[in-house]
Amino acid sequence: MKLFIDTANLEEIKKANSYGILDGVTTNPTLLSREKNEPISQLEKICKVVDGPVSAEVLSLDANGMIREAKERAKIASNIVIKIPCTVDGLKAAKKLKSLNIETNLTLCFSPSQALLVAKAGATYVSPFVGRLDDISTEGMDLVGDIRLIYDNYGISTQIIVASIRHPLHFVESARIGADIATVPFAVIEKLMKHPLTDIGIERFMNDWKKLKDNLQIK
Ligand code: E4P
After folding, report:
1. Ligand 1 neighbour 129 (Cβ under 6 A)
2. Model-level pTM?
3. Which of 2, 4, 5, 6 for mutating ligand 1's site (highest number of atoms within 8 Å of CB)?
C-alpha cells in the first residue's frame, strides 16, 4: 500500500519525505487555507519536494469550470493530480480530463455507487472519506471494503485512496482491505512507527550494554 501525506504544510511534507516512505501528497482547500503562502505557489513548492502525485483541488462546481481550472492546475507541475468532487459535473469533468491525459482524484466519496461511477468516468483515483463517516456513526472502513470488492469484481484500475484518516487503525485496516493508498495526516504518520515495547526494549539493551562495559571496564 502506498503512503501519501494529507497536508499542505511544507515542513511536514519534508519531514515525512526524509523518512524515505512517502509516495505522494493530498491537499484540499482547507489544508491550503492553513498555510500563509498563496495556494498556487505553495503547490509549486510541494511538487518540487515530492516526486509522487500531488492532489490539488478545483473549486468550480460546473464541469466546464472544473476542466478550465484543471488545465491551469496541471501547468503547475507534471506530478499534479486534479481533485474533483464526486458529483455529476465531477463525472463529466473526469471523463474529459481522462481524454486529455490529466490525472484525477475524485474526492468526497461517501458511497459505493459514487465510486463505481467515477471509475466508469475514468478517474485515476477515488477518495473515500472514512473519518467523516465514522463521525456520523457510520463505519467508514465498510465503504472501503465495498469499493475494493466492486473494483475487483470488474477489474477496475481506479486506485483507492483511503482519506480522512484519523488514527493508525484506519491505516492498518486500509492495508487489510487492500486499498491502494492511504493518505495520512502528519500527526498520524508519526504514530505509525511508535511502540512502547520498542522504546522499553531499546532502553533495556542500552542499560545492559552499559553494565557489561562497566563490569569489564572497557570503553
Ligand atoms: C483527502 O484527500 C482529504 O484531504 C482529507 O483526507 C480530508 O480529511 P478530514 O476529514 O480530516 O478533513
Report:
1. yes
2. 0.96
3. 6
